[in-house]
Structure formats: structure tokens, C-alpha cells
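Model the whole thing, not chain by chain.
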Amino acid sequence: MKTSFLRQSKESRARVGRIPRAFAVIGLLVLIILGVNYATFGGLSRVLHTIGNPLWKAQARAGGAVDGVFAGFKDKQSLREENKRLKEEIVRLTFSSISAEVLRHENEDLRRLLQREGEVERIAAAVLARPSRSLYDTFVVDVGRKNGVVMNARVFGAGDIVIGTVAEVYPSTSLVSLYSTPGRTTEIFVGDDSAISAEAVGRGGGDFEVKLPRGVEVTAGTPVFSPLLQGGILGVVEDVVALPSNSFQTILFSSPVNIQSLRTVAVELQ
Amino acid sequence: MTLLRIVLASLFFSSVFFSPWVITVLFACMLLIVSSGYEIIFGGLMLDLLYGVAVPAYAGVPLLFTVFFCILFVASFYIKKHLMFYHNRV
């Protein structure tokens, strides 16, 4: 009889049921690699970052050169996109100038009150690998331990817009974890004058979610701040979802900077 | 087939450094189609060691890609055993 499926011998059927030796060998190798990385306090990660650093820099240079070649041949579509981007930039800058003034006054008052005057020192860093490289919502910057970067240092996207913290520090590079990392919780203040304290949960890609009682009035465009001293702006409220059946409303807010298009950031030095 | 595997493996490992993760997953699937593709597990490890942090949404374990590629590898092994195309090849 003609069959359209694969006939399996008893031997091959028995083989399917068994765990092949290759799995055990690969599993053991993976465990050894992870064990070595753990025992050397991230030694393998450090090696990979050392290999990746010149590769990422070469890629950035190549990308820049390609951009330069095609700069003179901008078509209608790219001009339209640039126009859109510039309009977004104007909105962002307008918002930034208003909130910067509010923050400046607040900071001056607080620092005077706490006798903690002085500016936070920052170092400019180029983004080597963007968050799209993985599902972790992390990116790699070209400053590390040699430049004075420490763990948990805050990272600013533009001006006072804070986007994340340093999760790992290597000799010449650092891994930055965004506040918007899925499931990560961050203390925030919503609003300018009568700010409400809440806890934001990251949704990835620069987006956040906050649950507040329905009675609290929050509108689109309301700024969201970090409660830390000189904490900076975390985002702007995009949408408010309030269902009549729910006693809580969901505030959706996003970082004012486009995380995916960031080329440079500022890392706080402590 | 060996040459194709070498080319795909090179593209796969390069994509860990240069491309978005979806491209890496795409190359991993292609590697699994043309070979046993155990390399993808080490690619997953590289992704986790390079970019991994403890993400609460992923149970706080920075081994997302290693686990994912292990599952892909094991699943492909058993799927291939039931496909005529791979008969006498695996």
C-alpha cells in the first residue's frame, strides 16, 4: 500500500523517546559557560563586550558614512519624515522649556532646604547597540568603568529627560536598562503643581502604565517626574483609560524621547 | 550543505552584534532547517550575556534567548524525526 507518511522502524521510534546524548553534552556546556560567567563576576560578558565594542563602533561609522553619501539624494518621503520628526522635536522642546523652568525652581528650593547645592556631573556617551537588539529593553553605550561610570547611575536621553539606569559596567562599555523595561516598577510624580505620587510599571520601548484612583484628575500632556533630587522628567501622559466598572484608571505615558532613534545619551557620574 | 551552514552560522553570530533580535531568530530558524543547528544555543547565550538583565516580566532570569533557542533546538529535533524530508538525514 502506498503511504504518504514516514514509516518508522521500532528502533527509530525508540530513539525518539530517548534523550539524545547531544542534548546532555550541550546542556552541560551551557551550564559550564554560565558557571564560568558567574564565577568570574561576568567575565564572559566582559569579553563579549570587549569584542563587540570595536564592531559596534565600526558599524556606527559605516552607518554615518552611508548616511553622508545619500544625504544629497533626499526624496519626498524622507523630507516628509524629517518634517514630522522636526515637528515632534518642537513639541518636545516646548514642553521641555516649560517643565525645565518648573523643575529649576523646585530644585533650587529643595537643594537650598537640604543644603545639597551643586550640579550633577554627566558624561556624554554614544549609543552602540540599540534596544531593538534584544527583548530586554537595554542598550549599550561607549563609556564604562574607565570613564568613571558606576552601577545604577542614571542615564538621560536629552536635557533632563531620564530614561534608565546603568545595569552593568564593563571597562569601556556599559549596559543601560531602561525604566520602561517590561514589569520594572519606578516611583513617579504625576503632574506639575499638586503632584501625585505613584508607581509606574514599564511596558517596553519607552512606554509606561500607572494605576490611579478614578477620582484623580490626569489629562493627556501632563508631565511625569522622577521623585529623586534632580530626578528629571520621565515622560508625558499620552492617554487615560477609565472604565465605569473599574474604580481605578490606567494612565499611559511615554518618554518624550524616541528610545529607538537615540544616538547619544548623558550618563550621571557619582 | 556544509558551506551553507558555515555561511548561515556566520550571519547568525554577526546578527547577535549588528541586527535586531528578530533577524537573529530568523537566521536561527534557517540554521535549524539546514542542519542540526546546535550553534543557536550558543548564539542565545551570547545575546543574554551581551544584553541580558533581570527583567521582572521574564521571571527575573536574564536567560530568555538561551531558553528560547534551547526549546527551538529540542523542538526542531523531534519535529525533524517525523518529517519525510529529514528521513535518513538527522
